[in-house]
Amino acid sequence: MKKLLYSILALAGVAFTSCTQEHIDVQYIPGNVVAPVLGNIEGCELSEDGADITVEFTKADFGVATSTAHNLYVAKSEDMADMKKAKATFGEGVITMTQADLNVVALDFGEAGAEVTLYFAIQANLNTDKGSVVAGSESMSNVVAATFKSFVADVLPSEKFDKVWFLF
User: Fold this and answer.
1) 80, 99, 110, 167: which could form a disulfide with 50 (CB 3.0–4.6 Å)?
2) How many CB atoms lie within 10 A of CB 124?
3) Are 110 and 150 in contact (CB under 8 A)?
4) Which residues of the chain register pLDDT less than 70?
5) Under 8 Å CB-to-CB from 125, ≥6 apart: which residues?
């Protein structure tokens, strides 16, 4: 009986030690980050019901398998000092913006009905497993310029509501 017990313990020990795996450390090295790339943007005369503006882009490569966040920013100057986050939808290799949303940004930087040159850039960040941004992981893309002519909007997109409730 002892031989059987020792044999079972020996087999269990062999099975246990054979299931170990080497620990692999993943390391984020800021100098090895490949920045995102923003494609060309064609300027146009904006209209409230105009076709969506699409732009090609390449995501940033941080060298680690973790979630990332990409945001599109618009500025009045090429140095992006006065940048504002633009309302945009990121798809697989394509960014989509509505002309009405872009008009809101154009009105922030210029007069209604006037031409304004806007500068665009993508900022990418690493995210933690909780979804928060890892401090110091920012990576900016190239800056792309485009000229748009804004329109006078009676009601801004942010002021439109699907339903209005009246309380008496």
Assistant:
1) 99
2) 22
3) yes
4) 4-6, 10, 12-26, 153-162, 164, 168
5) 68, 69, 133, 134, 137, 138, 139
